[in-house]
Amino acid sequence: MIAADSTFRLDANVVDYLIVVAYFAVVLGIGLLARRQVSSSIDFFLSGRSLPAWVTGLAFVAANLGAVEIMGMSANGAQYGMATAHYFWVGAVPAMLFLGVVMMPFYYGSGVRSVPEFMRKRFGTGAHLVNAVSFAIAQLLIAGINLFLLATIVNRLLGWPLWVSLVVAAIIVLSYTALGGLSAAIYNEVLQFFVIVAALVPLTTIALHKVGGWDGLRERIQPGPEQLSSWPGTDLTGIDNPFWSVVGIVFGLGFVLSFGYWTTNFVEVQRAMAADSISAARRTPIIGAFPKMFIPFVVIIPGMIAAIIVPELAALKGGDAVEGVTYNDAILLLMRDLLPNGMLGIAIAGLLASFMAGMAANISAFNTVFSYDLWQQYVVKDREDDYYTLVGRLATVAATVIAIGTAFIASNYSNLMDYLQTLFGFFNAPLFATFILGMFWKRMTPTAGWTGLVSGTLAAVAVAVLSQDALGGLSLGVLPFSGQGASFAAAGAAFVVDIAVSVAVTTVTVPKPEKQLVGLVYSLTPKESLTDPDQSTMPWYQSPTKLAGIALVIVVIFNVIF
After folding, report:
1. Mean pLDDT over residues 22-26, rounded?
2. Are 233 and 244 in contact (CB under 8 A)?
């Protein structure tokens, strides 16, 4: 795409542009203010571990409320219907609760600065290097997704060539991330959360009214009302057998992909690590789980409605080829058709906010892992603290430039969820297997750590290559999996192979001494070190386990109703 197609051109006026400009001014202002608080590398990379739980909790969910949530999930809603809610109610909330209740005490209590550093303490440099390198590559690829969609909005709003839009969008994100580090990213993510909600709630309300409410949606949705039910989700998985479709959702998405992403992905865990206490760190993902479970109502439902009332998408879903139109365009086309000026400006700012939040989260996590886990550990050791802060800023610039290149990779996918879930299968699923086995099995050895990671990743790549269209032209089509079903299968293979190889290698290699595993393995860690000393005197709304219990009940109810 060179210039904006008139099909997508949003009829914005001066009021809309002023709203967007004002938003950007606030974003850059936050970056400048956060710059004043950066006096050490811990300030730059982890906000000095000084933020309250409500800030880190909102940042936790906003960091994930990027291109995937807005464009990807609305695209899934338009194509597959309510089954897309599995990415939230099965594929996110349970793992977020597990992270807060079980795993954050180990991350925060061990004093590590990143997830790969935890891997180094538990397994040594082999697993650490594999994890750090694979994580860094993944963040560059995922940042490209967010940047591509951010540039697409600028392209279609202003009519600029896509490459110009990419550069401008990248400079905006780079400016505040390089200035203020994680604090700038987190405070902007909190702002972006409210801007996104202010954009999506009115759009959803107007769309529901336009289609005739829930009853109208039920009557008009194609191919039929079964798209209003999330189970068994055969269209989403590409698995015709309802039983195996449910198995794929529960095991592939709900267990391997979900727990692999939410419990070991440093993009998310970094927000909790910035909290001011172990209790606040534990509550961070749990607080984030509450808005997370309601996001489907303002992302998936608008996508479903767009496939009914937007002519181009209705034709596409009916099987007709529509030049230049994909399901990824659902939210944009809905905005084009429904929103008046003024409200359109808020919606545009909301979309820009979501993509900036996602990209900034990827970049801030990348610069931490690159600086601490790769540069400081393996390239230049024992330098002064200011040196590593400078390395982090330079890594931020480099990552942003590389993301411009990976954005063009993302542009080749008509449904970005297929691409993203494939990446998660490669990088997150084997990491979760190694992590969970090492945390609960003290016998697991350092050699098993890195060999399991490598084997699991290769297994996921093999399944993707053998599936149908999982890797575009690189897929051979031997296995009967396609789309997101292929990513579920790849993740499952990665998990099983990783566990099998890790167990086999452990039986013939030497484990670490138990005294070196205190604080890293569940059975060897004193329980009192996993909670705040005054935890018992805190009110119920500050208790991680009570909050997690409430959230779990609500999400079970949603799964039953839908």
Report:
1. 83
2. no
3-class DSSP state for residue 275?
Answer: strand
Which residues fall within 8 angstroms of residue 392, CB to CB, at 6 or more apart?
Answer: 41, 44, 45, 181, 367, 368, 370, 371
269 in Cβ contact with 45 (< 8 Å): no
For residue 111, which amino acid is it?
Answer: G
Alpha-carbon span 368 to 213, nearest angstrom: 46
Q: Which domains does the chain have, with CATH numbers?
A: 14-412 (1.20.1730.10), 415-526 (no CATH)
- Per the document, the length of the chain is 562
Of 94-98, 177-181, 265-269, 352-356, which one has max mean pLDDT? Answer: 94-98
Buried-exposed string 437-474: b where 16+ CB fall within 10 A, e elsewhere: bbbebeebbbbbbbbbbbbbbbbbbebbbbbbbbbeee
Mean pLDDT (whole number) for 300-306: 90
CA 538 to centroid of chain Cα atoms: 31
As a whole number of angstroms, the distance between CA 19 and CA 14 comes to 9
25-80 tens-digit pLDDT: 887 887 777 777 777 777 777 776 778 888 888 888 887 776 667 877 888 888 88
Rg, Å, the chain Cα set = 22
Question: Sorting pLDDT into bands at 50, 70 and 90, what band is 290?
Answer: very high
Q: Which of 290, 452, 357, 1 is nearest to 146 (CA)?
A: 357
State the CB neighbour count (10 A cutoff) for residue 319.
6
Cβ 451 vs Cβ 403: under 8 Å = no
Neighbours of 505 (CB within 10 A): 19
Nearest Cα to Cα of residue 83 among 254, 207, 215, 198: 254
Amino acid, res. 59: A
Please state, in angstroms and rounded to a whole number, the distance separating the CA atoms of residues 549 and 338: 39
* Residue percentage of the chain with pLDDT more than 70: 89
Report how far residue 495's alpha carbon sits from residue 252's, in angstroms, rounded to the nearest whole number.
9
| 233 and 77 Cβ atoms separated by less than 8 Å | no
Q: How far is CA 142 from CA 262, 328, 397, 401, 443, in A?
A: 15, 16, 16, 13, 35
pLDDT tens digits, one per residue of 411-454? 776 666 667 777 777 778 888 889 889 888 999 999 999 999 99
> What is the C-alpha separation between 402 and 363, in angstroms, rounded?
11
Strands (E) in 157-304, as ranges, are: none
Does residue 330 contact residue 74 with C-beta atoms inside 8 Å? yes
- Taking the C-alpha atoms of residue 233 and residue 238, their distance in angstroms, rounded to an integer, is 8
User: In sequence order, which residues have a C-beta less than 8 Å from that of residue 226 and are 6 or more positions away?
Assistant: 81
pLDDT tens digits along 482-540: 666 677 788 888 889 999 999 999 999 999 998 888 888 888 887 776 776 776 677 87
Q: Are 359 and 147 in contact (CB under 8 A)?
A: yes
